[in-house]
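FAQ

Q: What does a record look like?
A: Structure on top, sequence underneath. For example:
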């Protein structure tokens, strides 16, 4: 009897040891996966772990007297996907109530920043961009537009509504697109660090060779916000123009990738966009040191970033169409689109 219970104790101890070893092994491999992905993030501070995200998303208060159409739980858009597999909303016309959203966000007294680069001849696009932003971009909200240009004296005088401001920052001229592109993320990173920390809640980074045609407002707010590229959204992921060389830090392997996102528009909470800009810049620069330039420069790095760091809100191609493309039936409204440009005329010929 005594001997038998001794054996039971030994078996139990052995089992416990085995479980301990298994648990340790599992924990180690989990840590390996995590630290591999963190290679994407610069080690010197600002990593996801020590970034404090103060979110306006967490508590949505509506005014109690607002009258609006009853939302349906069984009827809505059925021709498009309105939620990602990680349950982020995909914003299409007909999925949100603009009056309700505006009344929720008005109470939060938020400020939205937008950055736009107009280097060299791209200054010619700025007037249209700014004038149409006045008509459609966060109308009725506090908006600060930051223009980065080498031609500050050519910035058009556009009349802006109360609470909306234009800030002009000088940048050196550059003949190489690679330099302009590389510096975009750096300038966004330092702008956030040095100027925006205390007065801005959300930021959007937009291409200047585009203009607004319809509402772009509070429905687009989220932690990390990406826009679906209009050129590829019906294609198989094998056709997406991701960076395909493993040597690049923008690499996306075959069989990976959710959507192909635009480099010409992205945004979100200030802290989220800061981490994105910092990470993309550091990966871009580390690639450059090894003589690698990703297929679509920062757009490739952005796509790699969004594959690992899933956007919490995805904007449909309504939010960055292209003027040369005819409108597809699922696109009920074009809100923002890239203008047709004469490359020979506007780009520095290097
Ligand atoms: C872009 C391509 C080749 C050489 C120079 C440029 C360029 C881009 C430039 O000379 N000046 C400039 O301000 N940019 C900024 O980068 C603009 O904000 C522009 O919207 C953005 C992205 O370049 P795009 O719009 O030519 O790129 P795609 O992919 O929209 O055609
Ligand atoms: Mn563009």
């Amino acid at each position: 009897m005594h001997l038998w219970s001794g054996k039971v104790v030994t078996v139990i101890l052995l089992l416990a040891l085995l479980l301990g070893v298994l648990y340790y092994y599992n924990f180690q491999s989990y840590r390996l996966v995590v630290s591999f992905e963190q290679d994407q993030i610069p080690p010197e501070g600002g990593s996801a772990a020590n970034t404090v995200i103060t979110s306006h998303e967490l508590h949505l208060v509506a005014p109690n007297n607002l009258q609006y159409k009853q939302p349906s739980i069984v009827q809505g858009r059925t021709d498009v996907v309105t939620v990602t597999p990680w349950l982020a909303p995909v914003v299409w016309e007909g999925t949100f109530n603009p009056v309700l959203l505006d009344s929720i966000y008005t109470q939060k007294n938020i400020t939205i920043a937008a950055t736009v680069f107009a280097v060299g001849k791209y200054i010619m696009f700025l007037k249209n961009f700014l004038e149409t932003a006045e008509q459609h971009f966060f109308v009725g909200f506090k908006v600060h537009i930051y223009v980065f240009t080498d031609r500050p004296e050519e910035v058009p005088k556009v009349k802006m509504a109360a609470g909306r401001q234009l800030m002009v920052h000088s940048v050196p001229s550059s003949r190489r697109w690679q330099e302009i592109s590389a510096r975009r993320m750096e300038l966004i990173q330092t702008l956030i660090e040095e100027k925006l920390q205390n007065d801005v809640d959300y930021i959007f980074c937009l291409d200047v060779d585009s203009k607004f045609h319809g509402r772009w407002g509070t429905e687009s707010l989220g932690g990390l916000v990406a826009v679906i590229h209009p050129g590829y959204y019906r294609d198989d992921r094998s056709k997406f123009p991701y960076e395909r060389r493993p040597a690049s830090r923008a690499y996306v392997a075959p069989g990976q990738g959710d959507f192909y996102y635009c480099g010409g528009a992205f945004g979100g909470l200030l802290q989220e966009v800061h981490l994105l800009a910092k990470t993309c810049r550091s990966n871009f620069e580390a690639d450059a040191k090894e003589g690698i330039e990703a297929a679509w420069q920062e757009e490739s790095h952005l796509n790699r970033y969004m594959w690992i760091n899933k956007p919490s809100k995805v904007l449909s191609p309504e939010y960055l169409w292209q003027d040369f493309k005819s409108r597809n039936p699922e696109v009920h409204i074009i809100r923002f689109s890239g203008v047709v440009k004469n490359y020979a005329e506007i780009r520095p010929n290097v």
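Q: Is there anything notable about this one?
A: Helices lie at 2-38, 98-106, 126-136, 177-196, 270-289, 297-308, 343-346.
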